[in-house]
């Protein structure tokens, strides 16, 4: 099921032409910057700032409107684009800067644009799921969470603290942050903390190694694709050059054969005389 299409945030469809997809990807950056500006604008409103940001609202709307207009111009199937991006279209219409939204309605219309963050969260979710599926990283994280809770409970028992302090100490220790607000006071607690620190180092090494392998693997796949495309292009050029050379050799052979025949004919005529 295509959730992005249902939510109306699909962007340019993957079946569209290459030019539309390339320009759509470029607009993703501008839209993300515009969404960040919307977030800042909403924060300024709730903080009671009296700075006039109407010009910023107009600029943000222009980014959204330009994205929709340019994509509609470039895509082949315009109805499909509007159908799969109905939320983008709705926001462009409702957030028109010259519509006199006032009070709470103005904040609602501005905040509505933040729903477009879902577009980027979906991309992030897909990448995160890819990382979690590799080398059983998801299972490692779930098992680590269970061990952190268990370690927190054991620390609370050893140090005679409540379970919340124990879990907080386990999280801070495993992540090697070490705030120091909860520390072991007994010898047994320090020994337990030592093993917990070592566990944290191993855990973070596994997580970092899996994420690094994913990023490096993505780069390698991109390079391999570029190399394959280059090799394919070179093969096509060599094949074309071979055909041209064969045609050129055939022309030369035909010309030489003709010249030889003419020379032989001339020699025969000379002998007959």
Task: Please provide a brief summary of the model.
With 273 residues, the chain is an all-alpha fold. Helix content is 80%, strand content 0%.
Write the layout of secondary structure elements.
Blueprint: H1 3-7, H2 18-46, H3 54-74, H4 78-84, H5 86-94, H6 104-112, H7 117-133, H8 137-159, H9 163-174, H10 187-272
Helix pairs in contact: 2-3, 3-5, 8-9, 8-10
Keywords:
single chain; 273 residues; mainly alpha; 10 helices
What can you see in these coordinates?
Helices cover 80% and strands 0% of the residues. It is an all-alpha fold and 273 residues long. α3 runs antiparallel to α5. The longest helix is centred in the C-terminal third of the chain and has 86 residues. It is flat, with a radius of gyration of 34 Å. The mean pLDDT is 78.
Overall geometry? flat
Distance between the termini: 92 Å
Overall number of strands:
0
Average pLDDT for all residues? 78
- Percent strand equals under 5%
- What count of helical segments does DSSP give? 10
Helix content: over 70%
Protein structure class: mainly alpha
Low-pLDDT runs of 5+ residues are none
């Amino acid at each position: 099921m295509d959730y992005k299409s249902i939510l109306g945030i699909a962007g340019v469809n993957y079946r569209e032409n290459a030019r539309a997809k390339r320009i759509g990807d470029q607009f993703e950056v501008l839209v993300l910057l515009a969404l960040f500006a919307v977030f800042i604008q909403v924060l300024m409103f709730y903080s009671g700032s009296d700075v006039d940001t109407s010009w910023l609202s107009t600029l943000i709307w222009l980014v959204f409107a330009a994205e929709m207009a340019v994509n509609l111009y470039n895509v082949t199937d315009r109805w499909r684009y509007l159908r799969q991006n109905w939320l983008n279209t709705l926001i462009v219409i409702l957030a028109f800067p010259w519509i006199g939204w006032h009070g709470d309605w103005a904040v609602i219309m501005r905040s509505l644009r933040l729903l477009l963050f879902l577009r980027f969260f979906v991309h992030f979710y897909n990448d995160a799921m890819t990382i979690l599926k590799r080398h059983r990283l998801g299972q490692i994280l779930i098992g680590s969470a269970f061990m952190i809770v268990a370690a927190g409970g054991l620390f609370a028992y050893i140090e005679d603290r409540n379970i919340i302090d124990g879990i907080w100490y386990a999280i801070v220790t495993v992540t090697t942050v070490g705030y120091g607000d909860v520390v072991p006071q007994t010898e047994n607690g320090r020994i337990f903390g030592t093993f917990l620190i070592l566990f944290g180092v191993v855990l973070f090494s596994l997580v970092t190694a899996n994420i690094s392998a994913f990023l490096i693997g993505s780069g390698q796949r991109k390079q391999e694709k570029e190399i394959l495309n280059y090799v394919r292009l070179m093969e096509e050029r060599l094949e074309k050059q071979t055909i041209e050379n064969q045609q050129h050799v055939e022309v030369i052979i035909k010309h030489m054969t003709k010249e030889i025949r003419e020379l032989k004919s001339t020699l025969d005529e000379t002998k007959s005389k």
